[in-house]
Amino acid sequence: MKTKIKHIITLLLTILLLLSCAACGQTRTEQPEDTGDKDQYMTDPIPEGKPTPVEPQDTTVDTTTTHTCTFSISCETILDNMDKCVENKKFLVPADGIVFPATEVEFSEGESVFDVLQRVCRDNAIHMESNWTPMYNSAYVEGINNLYEFDVGSLSGWMYNVNGWYPNYGCGVYYVKPGEVIEWNYTCDLGLDLDGGWWEGAQDWKDNHD
């Protein structure tokens, strides 16, 4: 059950989210021929007008060219679900739920959301743990600030949002553009408790997997 939820939340990965831990560099497995509208990662089509993922091998980071974006990390949803939170993790939840407030940060041309997350956490001494997910050719973020997936119930974990949209592909293949607003939010309910929604089929999936 947890493994299924891990892959659903990943997409990202989110999704997910967000999710299987494996060594980097493995070869992707063949997908079934009948995949409908799903892409090579078996996720739903990218909504019209939204950016498509860029494979890590198809981009180069140019450290001589820098831009800025707005970046934040929040676990505010846990405040309304403290009764579900693992007891020895409750003290890690900030009083206001904000792990890192919305801040303008620099990034280099060609960097991904995951690259920026790594640097923000490193520069601000914020714990972060991730694993590479070959199935999605991207990183999956398991925990931030020592708050991990499943710490607040079986549908909980970290998800990222760019300009109000929760991409249905991994943070390692979303390449940041100048001025974008990036949020890392903790969900306690498969993304249904986050503004902006996420996956329109989340409620149906949840109803069928209780």
Describe the structure.
With 210 residues, the protein is of the alpha+beta class. The chain is built from three helices and seven strands. It has helices spanning 2-8, 113-123, 202-208, and strands at 62-74, 98-109, 128-133, 138-144, 147-148, 157-162, 181-187. The strands form two sheets. It has a four-stranded mixed β-sheet. A three-stranded antiparallel β-sheet has the order 3-4-5, with helices on one face. Strand 3 and strand 4 (138-144) form a beta hairpin. The radius of gyration is 16 Å and the shape is globular.
List keywords for this structure.
single chain, 210 residues, disordered N terminus
Task: Set out the fold topology.
Layout: H1 2-8, E1 62-74, E2 98-109, H2 113-123, E3 128-133, E4 138-144, E5 147-148, E6 157-162, E7 181-187, H3 202-208
Parallel strand pairs: 1-7
Antiparallel strand pairs: 1-2, 3-4, 4-5, 6-7
What is the CA-CA span between the terminal residues? 10 Å
- What's the helix count? 3
Helix/strand order? HEEHEEEEEH
Structural class: alpha+beta
